[in-house]
Amino acid sequence: MSVKTHTNRSIRGWIAIMAAGGLLALAGCGIDEPSESGDGDAGADSSDGAEGEDPIQIGISLPLTGDFSEPGKGVQRGYEAWASYVNENGGLLGRDVELTILDDQSNADRVASDYEKLINQDGVDLVFGPFSTRLVVPAAQVAMDYGFLFVEPAGAAEEVFNQGFTNLFYAAPAVAQDHYNYLAEHIEAMPEGERPQTAAYAAMDDPFAQGTAYGLKEKLEAMGVETVADEVYPPNTTDFSSIAAKIEASDADIIVGGTQYQDAVNLIIALQQLGYQPDLAAFSTAPTNPEFAAAIGDKTEGILSPTGYTPESTYPTNAEFVEFFNQEHGSEPTEDEANAWTTGQVVAAAVEGVGCADPSPECQGQLIDWLRNNEVETVVGPLTWDAEGRPQGAHLVQQYVDGEITIVLPDDAKEAEFIYPKPEW
Amino acid sequence: MDLVVQSLVLGILLGGLYALLAAGLTLYFGVMRVVMIAHSAFLILAAYLAWWFTSTTGLDPLLSLLFTVPLFFVTGVFVQRVLIARLKPATLTMMSVLLTFAIALMIEGMLGFVFSGTQRRIQLPYSGASFEIFGARIAVVKLIAFALAAVALAALYLVLKATRFGQSLRATIQNSEAAALVGIDTKKVAGYGFGVGLATAAVGGTALALDATIYPSLHWHWIGPLMAIIVVGGLGSVPGAAAAAMVLGVSQSLLQIPMGTTWAQTIFYIVLFATLVFRPHGFFGGRLAQRF
């Protein structure tokens, strides 16, 4: 998920130009063919056949190559699993669904033209969103210009919701700023004497990662926890020893990381190398990654992370999803795949609720209105949205307890007791 | 004060690693005027081999050097003799950028294909271990990486200064026509020189893997700073690259205290820019840069 920022003016300029050329050449070799076009009538307009027989065409653009290719492929697996599940279970409004997935190469210009093409030339009936804030914003703009409903699986940063989109819904439990809400509530409920007094923050210069850390920072500062270190680093940072040295020197009671993956792992190890022992260590994204424990070893105990999804959750449709996904892929779904599936569930609920699935502004308008006024039962829990499309929930908080990542907050969902202060690492 | 001492120590350790990673890069240019964009890709390849070696055998990653160093040497000779030697001398520098860029893309793609894009890290029992000296904490893995760099650079220096091959190599660097006139087989020397450069990449990649999370596209983050180091140090000069690496590593680490991470990274390019404006041949390298 890391995003590379090239800063050298001379050599890297060259590289960028040639990389672009290379990618264009790759694209020419056909990776942006629709990856699931069924009987080959992906471009057919749904209105030229009888209602109830034509499949419902769903247009999607995903970053299958480039910076976001790993999570992009996860979202693709989630969408495809959802489509085959729906088709095996009688379809949507009695019609099969058919996905047209284009590759936007993690490129914001490309994602806009992809949706333009899907809506205009291919005449799709519905669209699903791409991955990541940076691609969701331009894609949502195109969808809004055509009056399309736009449900997306991965644009959690505030800048998605303050653009004035009236057609956008984020299919996950909470926006980035609210990921740590349960943790903030828990700290606030602690007796005055036990609460941490000082906090250090380290956040990647990325709207999502920074949003999670600063959401908690705002709440902790409001309850009187002093900020003693606040480090922001560019996404291409690989050496975290100096950041760790500053945090160690601040001797903060707790450390909060607005992180993706490699930055969290490198920062945690750099902090351990300096002998820094906080009472609480919370990092977004990385700790829920299966590779995390393999990288950190036996020093994970007590590390916290917010999570939007776990395969163990007991929401009504989740068991079927995990079982179906396991059959298709032989592994349990991750958050990216679950959010893609959730996107499918949200759009399907609206389509079933209104009884239409076509590109006409009337139908799309009805779908949007339906989602404004209804709650949808999904694999990540029941979802409702505010007027800008922010989901109204919070993320579960997980903690490493006895070497396993376990839900500890909120109280009604917990699998183990919240450990504070955390054991030494 | 503690923070300054700590940052200074971290900077020195970082500078040592930079020196090792940049050594091969300056050698290729010195010997053959080749700009080797793929050097950092080979570093990551070596890091992956060390990770793969440790995760399959359970042995210490340093033991992987026993086979990666010879493998990289042979690969280097092969790449030079089969690919780079075929480029026209008149456009060698320019064309070598394209050629080695292609090699870098191939290595990155192959790593992604074989090991997937998942980010990996070697799990060592001593990865978080450290000891305290003069109020600064020194991580064991960083010290090992620094020691590897010191040993590898000292060995490289000895090879260049004290062996017959080293003399031929330096003669080829200084003036390849004259070297050929006195009977040095410059083609063979160039091949071996390239092999030695790539062998340092094997050592550097393993040192890097001890304390880094690796992924196939990581090499793009490294090539820029490494290029800056060899230009500042004077293209073709191994001691120059080492000195520049140390200066830049320490400045980056110290500047991070007042400026933060984002701005501290720009030190490389500010110094690069200043070098090109005021001392285009670098601080150690003589007149080579004029031909760049």
Model description:
The complex is a heterodimer of chains A (425) and B (292). In chain A, 40% of the residues lie in helices and 16% in strands. By secondary structure, chain A is an alpha/beta fold. Chain A folds into two domains: 33-174 and 315-383, Response regulator (Rossmann fold); 178-307 and 395-413, Rossmann fold (3-Layer(aba) Sandwich), CATH 3.40.50.2300. In chain A, helix 7 links the parallel strand 6 and strand 7. Chain A is elongated and about 65 Å long. Chain A starts with 10 loop residues before the first helix and ends in a 16-residue tail after the last strand. Residues 1-10 and 21-51 of chain A have low confidence and may be disordered. Chain B has 292 residues and is mainly alpha-helical. Chain B has one domain (13-218). Chain B has a two-stranded antiparallel sheet with strand order 1-2. Chain B is globular and about 55 Å long. The chains are: A alpha/beta (425), B mainly alpha (292). Chains A and B meet through helix 1, strand 7, helix 8, helix 9 and helix 10 of A and helix 1, helix 4, helix 9, helix 10 and helix 11 of B.
